[in-house]
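Look over this entry.
=====
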Amino acid sequence: MDLNLTREQYEKLLELVYLGNWLINAYRTDDYLEDYSDVVSLIFSQAEKAGLEEKAVRDEMGEKYLPSFDFEESLHDYISEYDSFCFWEELINRLAEREAIKEFGSLPLDKIDLDEFLEKKDKYLRAYEQEVEENGLKNFELVKKS
């Protein structure tokens, strides 16, 4: 397969490949998905030919091409923005879901009317979104029940 890219397109491809692998593997330890890092290596192996040699380095064994430290650092803002967005979305969503479930009391989850649940959850989503927008975490507290 041949893929003809401009230098700028190839640079964007490097960014996309790095960020995609980061999304898939950054949090993994024992279950790291090597197939994805192999694709990263393949794509980064062409950096010198594209005049972007500063974007890639070879590993210590000389077997794989990796993103350079400076290249990784240049993408840190995207990762931070993504992490921040996911944190707030998950926090708000989970809190809203918890509150909506509480309204149904001891009713088993499989007996809850989905439309009614989503309506209640939406009410809490809007309230938590407003709270987070206005105050961040300032008013959040962990309350232990005895």
In short: Residues 76-103 form the longest helix (28 residues).
